[in-house]
Amino acid sequence: MEDHLAIARTLSGDTRAFGVLIGRYQNMVQTVTGRVLRNRMDAEEVTQDVFVKAHQKLKEFQGQGKFSTWLYSIAYRTAISALRSKKDAGRSLDELQAHGSEPMEDAVEPINERREQLEMALGKLDPEDAAMLTMFYLEEMSVEEIVTVTQLSASNVKVRLHRNRKKLLALLQDQLKNELWTMSARA
Questions:
Q1: Which of 139, 127, 136, 123 is nearest to 162 (CA)?
Q2: How many CB atoms neighbour CB 4 within 10 A?
Q3: Which CATH number fits the domain that encloses residue 128?
């Protein structure tokens, strides 16, 4: 069932049609909430909140853009809001992890070693910066779609992507140097 059909059927009262949308986009929403929150349990909770909000606001979706971009925007804003609320409550991400919360990186089995290194490097970036790089490179969203999601200007998105690429490259280079040093120390 195509998105526009599932949306129309949901708006006419077919709850199973919204289940189709949830099934189609759950991994995408979980990725963005996990990238921002860096905690599996929080990401799962916020993912549920995202779908509740999407269902409540479905009448507002005009169909001018892609449904996935509209949903991604809700997911991004909800995750950022949850992160800010958590910081405002005085609980840092480090404190949460120190008290036994399972980080998102541990919940996702990396496809290969390079993917794991990329995840580690992204984890060292500011959550909003990591989310923006994820949108552009992993979700293959256009700058225009990222503008819609983040509500930043196109020039701001481009500048932040450029700066974040440089930061990510430096982090990956450091990881590679450490890996090579460890390998040479073992030999």
A1: 136
A2: 11
A3: 1.10.10.10
Tokens matching residue 124: 């060292």
CA-wise closest residue to 7 among 74, 60, 79? 60
**CB under 8 A, 24+ apart: contacts of 89-97:** 93/38, 93/39, 96/39, 96/42, 97/39
Q: How far apart are CA 23 and CA 20, in angstroms?
A: 5
Q: Tens of pLDDT along 62-75?
A: 777 889 999 999 99
Nearest 5°: the CA angle 66, 43, 23 is 45
Residues 6+ apart with CB under 8 A from 5: 17
Predicted local distance difference test score (pLDDT) of residue 90: 52
Question: In this structure, are residues 83 and 34 in contact, taking their beta carbons and an 8 Å threshold?
Answer: no
CATH number for the domain including 49?
1.10.1740.10
The answer to whether residues 173 and 117 touch, using CB atoms and an 8 Å cutoff, is no
Of the candidates 55, 84, 108, which is a domain's last residue?
108
Q: Taking each helix axis as running N to C, give the angle between helix 3-11 and helix 67-88, from 0 to 180 degrees, rounded to the nearest 10.
A: 70
Task: Report the predicted TM-score, pTM, of the whole model to 2 decimal places.
Answer: 0.62
